[in-house]
Amino acid sequence: MDAIILQILNGLDKGSAYALIALGLTLIFGTLGVVNFAHGALFMIGAFVAVSLQRLFGMSFEQIDETKTDFLGNPLKVNVPYVDSWFGPDVGEWLIDWSVPLAILVAIPVMLLVGFVMERGLIKHFYKRPHADQILVTFGLAIVLQELIKYFFGANPIQTGAPDAFTGSFDFGRLIGFDPNVIIYPYWRLVYFAFAAVVIGAVFSFLRFTTFGMVVRAGMADRETVELLGINIDRRFTIMFGIAAAVAGIAGVMYTPILAPNYHMGMDFLVLSFVVVVVGGMGSLPGAVAAGFLLGILQSFASMNEIKAIVPGIDQVIIYLVAIIILLTRPRGLLGRAGVMED
Amino acid sequence: MGILEVKGVGKRFGGLQALSDVNLSVAEHSVHAIIGPNGAGKSTLLNVFVGKLIPDTGSVMFNGQSVLGRKPHEINQMGISRVFQTPEIFGDLTVMENVMISCFAKRDGAFRLHAFRTVAHEADIVEHAEQVLEDVNMLDKRNMHAASMSRGDKRRLEMAMCLSQDPQLLLLDEPTAGMARADTNNTIALLKEINQKRDITMVIIEHDMHVVFSLADRITVLAQGTPLVEDTPERIKGHPKVKEAYLGESA
Amino acid sequence: MRLLGLSRKDTRFLLIVIFLTMATPILLQPFPEGSGLATFNAGYPDLMQRFAIFGIFAIGFNILFGLTGYLSFGHAAFLGVGSYTVVWMYKLLDYNVVYGLPLAVAVSAVFAVVIGYVSLRRSGIYFSILTLAFAQMSYNLAYSVLTPLTNGETGLQVYGNDPQVLLGATEANSPHFFGWVMNDNFWEPVIGGWKFTFNNGYYFTAIIAIIAFYVSLRIFRSPFGLMLRAIKTNQTRLNYTGINTRPYTLAAFVISGMYAGLAGGLMAAMDPLAGAERMQWTASGEVVLMTILGGAGTLMGPILGAGFIKYFENIFSKINDSVLHGWFGFLPDGLEDFLIGVSHFFVGKSWHLTLGLLFMLVVVFLPGGLVEGGQRIAAMFRKKSGGKDDAAHQPKPAPHVAE
Fold first, then answer.
1. Judgement on whether residues B64 and B108 belong to the same structural domain of the protein
2. What is the rounded CA–CA span in Å between residue B153 and residue C371?
3. Which residue(s) pair with C176 in the sheet?
4. Chains A & C: contacts with CB separation below 8 Å
5. DSSP secondary structure string, C331-346?
6. d(CA C291, CA C288)
7. Best mutation site among C70, C125, C288, C365 for testing chain A: the one with the most A CBs within 10 Å?
8. pTM (predicted TM-score)
């Protein structure tokens, strides 16, 4: 029992990331009818916004600290972050410590802008082109973005820490009546799950309860009719693309303490997120979220030693295996609509 | 005993009874028209004939063999060809290639791995395809891209593809939909010729009464998924039930 | 002139390909050794072998994607299977590639039948995702539980204690074809400042590549090829015309899988190693790029695409600071530094950036790939010379159609 709960918990954070990326992917697909292979790159850009902010806050200058001396008795040179000298050490240290969550505030406008530029500059011209062309051009874009990140940040993963307050783990098992130290769960992963739940909830309520969202949902169902009503659906779709980019971006920001950002993380997550979207059903928002968590949790179950002992290698293939089975038995994925992308 | 025997066919989509107890017998060599108001189930019935839909009840026999549960390509190989409402052709290929494909399908069956032959060297196919194109007056367009042709030409091409297979039964779904009067008359003439010279049985779904009355030997009136009457064109014209269900509306 | 049952035009295509492949060691060595432009030379064995091998891979992929329009994102799996098969034959029998290569084709055909049978039950992006899933599964398994078969991260290679039951006392200790050792060069003339290398392995792969091209040429012109093109255009019509499309697509999938297996086998024939990274989805993506860049559905496209990408990959990644200084050295310092700084984005390790940009440009402006570009240029010249057949007045051929 405790092992099961532990695996479900372990699957949640990965599932959250899949769900957030897949949500944006399927939103773009459902609204614009575009298959965006560069969506993983948006996740990656978000992660590197966090890296940049942490670096920016960490930028420092050398100062001679009169109060300390080195072992020769000379005054010690220390590196003082600019933020410390501007805002005082308290605020400065707090800023550095909390740079990852703070990066969300930076990432949202940055990602919206990236999304707008992408949609207006490139994607717009591919609405009427075949899906294969869309896949190919966004695939090219993904390579370009990935290489740019590699150029500026190097090929090695960059450790980016969570705020000190969240670095430890807590004993989840004791909370629900198990023995101590049986179900240990890092704080940050719990934060990530809560964060994902809030974002998903926000996106859903935005689509459900605002006029804007209503128009977008109507457009997803039947684009032509909405256009006939004289509503400028294009502009809304541009905004939708920006929102999808922002969701992927902040998902990337918050994921940095869990996985040290590297330039190929976008591609890694893209492949899995695509599987998630297809399993959930192309164009289905609840499907994407459900499939994201389902596959995340299944993956962590499959990596249990007990399971691996029975079926060797299952942890390596579970996601793909499930995808194959679902696609063959439920051609439109878990919650997909008929007739989407079948030609 | 007709070439196509439909008995007790019913089909339900959720809460909608699209077809119920359809009985129909198409005599060999005849032109049999199916008419009826919108939503009467004409297209559903046609989709049952070609294997796209499987009815909940009833049987459809072609030449004494059931067509139910068979795939579209199997039904075609039995000798039933279909012309679509909007012409379905191979747009990226040339007119000649379009016709050759159906000639190959007739000669080689549903699948044959002729990977090391050369299309241009298949003399019998080339000759046959050219003959068919000549018959529909399209030989001069043989090297044109099919997609770049007018709608009327596309329709004629589709008809030529069906003819090249020398089917026993030709199903036509509104063959003159969206056509100008002149084109419609040409199509009528072409269809008449096909029926008489080639002896191909036809089932035709049509809205245009002019077309129906100039072609059909027998007419079935479908209303709300059930055949109302079946008779010769002359008697359908004056039939009170038909007037009420169908012609009455437009009159 | 007509050859081997080909039309006049196709004979010309074949002769061009034969000429290009046979003369590659000379054509790719246009600059004298030691000159500033020698960086652009590509006439050395390793690279030329890769041209031929990836040419075969792309030609095969084009039979599936170019003709039927089914976009597979998993063809690298067959590449890996081919390589592993050949290395296993080295380990068990001996270094003669004659056992491994046919077996590589056969084994990848078996894999292709299984993967194709399942994946082809769906079309469109669902098909792409299914093939991707199969390839990623193969890749992950090759790295983990299949280590006894694949030697995991180290990669499969021949060790001293392998059985090699057929190994003769005087036999070469590296891949060969009945004593024709792949690594050896049979002629290395130096003419003037030019140095040419005629390599056994290259000519071995080149001859196979020519045969592979000839086979694809025949398939393109065959009734089977016509059906594949019809599948891409309108599957509904084809079904109602009495054609069962499934076996046709499966046959195309298996044939292209066999080509990929052959290419993978040849990789191991040139360098007796096989690693799981050959199966990764990025490798599948690469062959997609080659085919599109050259022109999907065209005969010459995949070859051009493969050559183009492999050439620039090699050349661009070779360009480093000292080469750039050599080029821009004559400029004033500030400008020199600026140009070198800008170039940095595109050369050396950043070559993929160039590839990505180039690829986007092709998809946006030249959907028919390099072949379409060539046709447009040719049409422009024809117009200028005022030739009789005015290309503009012909019906415009749709992109992705064989020519």
1. no
2. 31
3. C96, C181
4. 117
5. S-HHHHHHHHHHHHTT
6. 5
7. C125
8. 0.88
Note whether B116 and B215 are same-domain residues.
no
Domain count of chain B? 2
Reported as a single tens digit per residue, the pLDDT across B177-219 is: 777 888 888 888 888 888 888 889 999 998 888 888 889 999 9
In a domain, B230, yes or no: yes
Question: In sequence order, which residues have a C-beta less than 8 Å from that of residue C30 and are 6 or more positions away?
Answer: C40, C41
- Domains within chain C, CATH numbers bracketed: 8-318 (1.10.3470)
Q: Is A242 left (phi over 0), alpha (psi -120 to 50) or beta?
A: alpha
Domain architecture of chain A: domains with CATH: 2-47+100-329 (1.10.3470)
* Dihedral pair phi/psi, residue B208, rounded to 5°: -75, 110
Count the neighbouring beta carbons within 10 Å of the beta carbon of residue C300: 20
Last residue of a domain, one of B149, B166, B183: B166
Provide the 8-state DSSP code for B145.
B
Determine whether the interchain pair C234/B110 forms a contact, defined as Cβ–Cβ distance below 8 Å: no
C298: tokens are: 């065209």
More confident site: C110 or B17: C110
Q: Are residues B21 and B94 in the same domain?
A: no
CA distance B68 to chain C (A): 15
Chains that touch C (3 or more CB pairs under 8 A): A, B
The single-letter code of the amino acid at C215 is V
pLDDT surpassing 80 at residue C200 = yes
CB contact under 8 A, A144 and C357: yes
Length of chain B: 251
Quick: pLDDT tens for A248-290. Answer: 999 999 999 888 999 888 888 888 888 888 888 887 888 999 9
Q: How far is CA C397 from CA B89, B91, B147, C7, C264, in A?
A: 16, 11, 10, 20, 34
Neighbours of B96 (CB within 10 A): 20
Nearest to B77 among C221, C242, C401 (CB): C242
**Closest C-alpha to C101, from C225, C211, C24:** C211
Residue type, B48: V
Residues B93 and B139 in one domain: yes
- φ and ψ at residue B80, rounded to 5 degrees: -110, 125
Q: Which domain holds residue B153?
A: 89-166
DSSP string, C104-164: HHHHHHHHHHHHHHHHTTS-HHHHHHHHHHHHHHHHHHHHTTTHHHH-GGG-EE--TTS--
Within this chain, do residues B210 and B151 fall inside the same structural domain, yes or no? Answer: no
CA distance A124 to A114: 14
Please count the other Cβ atoms lying within 10 Å of the Cβ belonging to residue B103.
23
Q: Is residue B10 part of a domain?
A: yes
What is the C-alpha separation between A299 and A12, in angstroms, rounded?
10
HSE of B246, CA atoms in CB hemisphere, 13 A: 24
C232 vs B81, B92, B108: nearest CB: B92
B149 lies in the same domain as B173: no
Is the separation of the CB atoms in B239 and B231 below 8 Å? yes
ipTM: 0.91
Residue B148 lies in a domain: yes
Answer yes or no: is B109 within a domain: yes
Secondary element (H or E) of residue C48: helix C45-68
Same domain, B203 and B158: no
Residue-level pLDDT at A180: 77
Helix (H, G, I), strand (E, B) or coil at A60: strand
Same structural domain, B39 and B21: yes
Q: Where would I find the H helices in A60-167?
A: 82-97, 99-121, 131-153
